[in-house]
Amino acid sequence: MSIIILAIESSCDDTSAAVIKDGVILSNCVANQEIHKLYGGVVPEAASRAHQINIVPVVDTAIQQAGINKEDLSAVAFTRGPGLIGSLLVGVSFAKSFAMSLNIPMVEVNHMQAHILAHFAEDPKPPFPFLCLTVSGGHTQIVKVTNHLEMELLGSTIDDAAGEAFDKTGKLLGLDYPAGPLIDKYAQLGKPVFEFTEPKVGELEFSFSGLKTAILYFLRKKIKENPNFIEENLNDICASVQYRIVSILLKKFKVAADKTEIKHLAIAGGVSANSALRNGLEEMGKEMGWETYIPRFEYCTDNAAMIAVTGYFKYLKKEFVGQDVVPVARWNV
Q: How many domains does the chain have?
């Protein structure tokens, strides 16, 4: 009998549902929330309310696109954490009710583990062991992946994540939220002519709070000298900020590869959609003799397909949870 799983992702501001059958993704639907652009960042209360509106039609669409009936489902997988507690609560509550109504088991999924396992949504799939640089708005981590469900955290940020550095810079530059894609776009039109120092932290640790402060002071000084500095130098500013963030990420990733002697390297998470990071990893891979793995854009940002893949492997191990499960804002890999 086939294993068919409905997956729910609601950790932040995207409501997503997907269906997987015997390890093959049949559908992957996402509803975005435009309201947060008005505030320059995600508003937790607004996000949770929007999830309540979106979750039923998104799930219905995912089931229809998969060409199945809800009675065909073997289980429901859902993001338990980490994430915004109000957003997670909507997804977890829906999953519990849906599973109870069909009398099928539930599978809890760690959002960050799912980002890594997004690489198994389609070919080419990295062999074990491999290293994964997981970069998003809330996390920056280097993880050693031994098998689908066994992972070791080698290094992470001691303060802010790389995605936060992009978003904070975008806010300072007057760009819409999310700023990452816009900075990437403008950076491709400019050159990294402005110097930002690299934070001094542990060998496999990251730090981006100091970089954010350095960018703030740099812009204040330049605007005081020339009120039109941002408008006149937007492309070069974006290129310079992006260059420094990506160089920090890739330098640490290389250290991890050298220490572990692992030759298969992957990236995951929302920031892995950044063109400079993708190109930089490919170039470094060719130079170092690595095999590199970069997911398609739709599997970089928050999506339920990655939850479905993780749920599938946990289903095979019969790792189910009961109706007493609750969401968690923090949850290590």
A: 2
DSSP string of 113-125?
Answer: HHHHHGGGSSSSP
Domain identity same for 235 and 254: yes
The conformation of residue 177, written as its DSSP 8-state character, comes to S
Quick one: tokens of 318? 């019969």
Cα–Cα distance between 253 and 290 in angstroms, integer?
A: 12
12-61 pLDDT, tens per residue? 989 999 999 999 999 999 997 666 565 566 777 888 998 999 999 999 99
Residues 155 and 255 in one domain: yes
Residues 266 and 134 in one domain: yes
Domain that holds residue 152: 126-295
Query: Residue 26 CB: number of other CB atoms within 10 A?
Result: 18
Does residue 322 form part of some domain? no
Is the bond into 129 cis (omega within 30 degrees of 0)?
A: yes
CATH number at residue 28: 3.30.420.40
Residues in CB range of 188: below 8 A, 6 or more apart: 239, 275
- State the pTM of this model: 0.94
3-class DSSP state for residue 44?
helix
Interhelix angle 180-187/229-260, rounded to 10 degrees, is 100
Cα–Cα dist 131/204, whole Å: 13
Instruction: State whether 23 and 63 are in the same domain.
Output: yes
CA 250, CA 187: separation in Å to the nearest integer?
18
